Amino acid sequence: MAKRDHFASKIGFVLAAAGSAIGLGAIWKFPYMAGTNGGSVFVLLFIISTLLIGLPILLAEFVIGRKGQADAITGLKKLAPGKKWFLIGWSGFFFSFIILSFYSVVGGWILSYLGRALMFSLNNSGESYYANLFDSIIANPWEVLLGQAVFMLLTILIVQGGIEAGIERASRIMMPALLIFFVVLVIRSLTLDGAMEGVKFMFVPDWSYFTAQTMLLALGQAFFSLSVGVAGMMTYASYLPKEQKLGNSAFSVSLLNIGISLMAGLVIFPAVFALGYSPNEGPGLVFIILPAVFEQIPFGAFFMLLFFILMLFATLTSSIAMLETVVSMGIKNAYDKRKRSSWIYGLLIFLVGIPSALSFGVFSDVKIFGKTFFDFADFLTNNFGLPLGALMISIFAGYVLKKQETFDELNISSLTFTTWHLIVRYLAPIAIIVVFLNAMISVFRG
């Protein structure tokens, strides 16, 4: 039987874990959530929520994963023998599978834009062109299926290589490149005339937006952007050697997630304000408004190309974490089956994702509880899967794991440990339940 793989270095693990968290949530969702909720106040509440709630839950996943030293299902069985806590692992398996099935569809859209950007055909077109282009891409069955297939192929090729040779190596290339591209784009955006209005929008508080709803939305964004609740971080932590400090790694991942989210805002909002667009355009901000912004600046086609490469890297680093979570639980201890299982599960995820890919064209009239396949899969995972998983992880770390063993595993100061333990036992579960109930109320209100 093949030996269990491990991350070769702390930086490799941190980059891979950060890549799992830094995906469409940071680059696509954060800017439009901030843009539609007043900017600066939302940003401030997001940072506080990430550090106060998201970070402790992330650390809880790291503790469980490394103590288990196995896939999430096997590890939880080892830590709580004879109990049903291993169902957290099965929940992570199912929801990672479903998330990747529609996440890969968006990855395909990005590839479609990237292909056009590579041919420099996304310029001198006007805003209405981009709105029509987006609608035509997502409605074209052959283009969306081809994009989804290519995106899943890239994901499979990385995951089949294993932790050190596949995931860690890819993360060491893509994450630094992503950071460099972001710095270039931020500098370009900040040098536009009128860019400071966008900076003020992000960092000068308008306290009229300080409402209970904004607090809940910021908490939800912080929580979901760290990619906790589906056993992905637990899976990555299971490949860590004992000598690595979990607290430092979790803090580094959280800071990188905050940093990339802020940089995404600094790419988008200064450019949007400088060129007279509205920041509250919603989900279309990246696919419709931003290309229209880029084409109005010198060398805009080049910067647009950089942006969609950046989007691809960020999306891939998240998708490989989701596929790895599924594959690790599928092969359990049979590590020599990794390559075959990566292809089998990758193909199955692609097939399950076909209805989501066709939701805006061929299957646009097919509804589940009034939602398309794509929207239903998104709703199911974001409103049920992630909160449920994170709640159970928080309870398991706070109440099931032995306090002294957890303290020894974390290797942090007594004060820091006590603070963390109180958060995962009390504050985090309450916050998760509040976000969950708020989401349910919003759904039933329509």
TrEMBL record:
The chain crosses the membrane at residues 7-28, 40-64, 85-111, 144-163, 175-196, 216-239, 251-277, 297-323, 343-364, 384-401, 422-444. It comes from the Bacteria. It is found in: Membrane. It is a multi-pass membrane protein. GO terms for cellular component: membrane. InterPro entries: Na/ntran_symport, SNS_sf, YocR/YhdH-like. Keywords: Membrane, Transmembrane, Transmembrane helix, Transport. Its main location: membrane. This is Sodium-dependent transporter.
